[in-house]
Amino acid sequence: MPETQMPTPRTRVIREPHRGVYDRETVHRILDEGFLCHIGFIVDGQPFVIPTSYGRKDANLYIHGSSASRMLRNLKDSVPMCVTVTLLDGLVLARSVFNHSMNYRSVVILGKATLVEDPREKLEALHTLSEHILPGRWNDARQPNERELKQTSVLRLPIEEFSAKVRTGPPIDDEEDYSLPTWAGVVPLELKAGEPIDDSKLDPPREVPVYIRDYTRHA
Amino acid sequence: MPETQMPTPRTRVIREPHRGVYDRETVHRILDEGFLCHIGFIVDGQPFVIPTSYGRKDANLYIHGSSASRMLRNLKDSVPMCVTVTLLDGLVLARSVFNHSMNYRSVVILGKATLVEDPREKLEALHTLSEHILPGRWNDARQPNERELKQTSVLRLPIEEFSAKVRTGPPIDDEEDYSLPTWAGVVPLELKAGEPIDDSKLDPPREVPVYIRDYTRHA
Q: What are the residues facing A189 on neighbouring strands?
């Protein structure tokens, strides 16, 4: 049985309520497909929204950054934050401008983050973050040393208060517009990886590893 | 001469300051290449981050939505907001996990929005939004009628307090890591449009217009 979270008044989808999704399995699937989130937090009454990467392990979201980062210094004090992940799937072109839309899957998580102090959890979180973005990379690269770990902060946000919003499918037009001579349908959008570019300092030249060559991903 | 905005303490890029960009021309170029933004606002002390589309005209950003939308009802009261646009350009794979990065261009705009009341500006803003996402669509589709205009709210955010952050180029490794046998370089990422999907209710079938077939875009 998938766990279904009851939406709180803060996470209930109000506009287009049929697009609201509250089951954890769907939310985890969306989180696992993306790797770029936008984090909202407040400084002196002003909201800020900053993009960063993330990783998920079980019911926790991990983010990381330089210990000197303004965002991380703010968030580690257990202040209210919002993490939003958006996967854009397509442009939905209706016969009327008004009924144009987009196909997307988005997740909003509200909560407070905690600084990960335990060295083992911190290393595991960094491993999760790395493998989340590019599986196979962690073992192929030099792993973090003590100095680097000290320069990195990791935050844990429990995935507890959340909702997703999903739109799929064709345009929905007003009945009387279907006879208009306008093309209608969906233009799918997907984040695609291009041909890997060798670092010019690769000496001797090296083969691009399989886990990079086969990379396809949504962000 | 490009106008260069002095960063305020709130928009100055602190971490990796050499990535901070404050000239309006660069910022407008980034805004014009994307069409998806993440909007941050505060309700009862809780930050929310919601994805939506936008359009730019001169030094104003326009967003729109249902007049019933929680976000728009909140924002029209001239509360502090943040609009962030992120273009993800690639994964930067260094020889050490620590030096991994991403190539990206992001813009952060702080300010307060105003509800567009003037009918001509409102229609122009909707035209801007539509053409921003898919040039050519506005004239090919049925344009908004009075009822639809009433159901739509448009907000104007002046692009006044802003900054951009840009990373480009290859990985930068620690000197002693360059001899490691790890492939390093950049995996370019790009939002690509797939084959347009006809609405099954197209009757008779219609050709996909050229402005859709040739669509390539960043989001």
A: B193
Q: A65 and B15 in contact by Cβ < 8 A?
A: yes
- Report yes or no: A87 at the B interface, CB cutoff 8 Å: no
Q: Does B169 touch chain A (CB under 8 A)?
A: no
Which architecture, in CATH terms, is B17-172+184-191?
Roll (2.30)
Nearest chain B CA: its distance from A42 CA (Å): 7
| pLDDT at B216 > cutoff 80 | no
Q: Cα–Cα distance between A107 and B51 in angstroms, integer?
A: 10
- Give dist(CA B113, CA A116) in Å, integer: 37
Confidence check: pLDDT of B205 > 50: yes
Return the domain boundaries, chain A: 17-213
Ramachandran region, residue B136 (left: φ > 0; alpha: ψ -120 to 50; beta: rest): left
Q: pLDDT by residue (tens digit) across A144-171? A: 999 999 999 999 999 999 999 999 999 9
> Per the CB < 8 Å rule, is B51 touching A93?
no
Going by the DSSP 8-state scheme, the letter that residue A97 receives in this structure is: S
Contacts of A99 (CB under 8 A, 6+ apart): A171, A172, A173, A174, A177
Mark yes or no for CB contact B189/A184 under 8 Å.
no
**For the residues A61-78, what does the mean pLDDT come to?**
89
Tens-digit pLDDT profile for residues B73-84: 889 888 999 999
- Helices of type H across A101-200: 119-133, 137-140, 146-151
Q: Which CATH number fits domain A17-213: 2.30.110.10, 2.70.50.60, 3.40.50.2000, 2.60.40.380?
A: 2.30.110.10
Q: Helices then strands (H, E): number in chain A? A: 6, 12
Length of chain B: 219
B52 Cβ under 8 Å from any chain A Cβ: no
In this structure, what token pair is assigned to residue B211? 């402005």
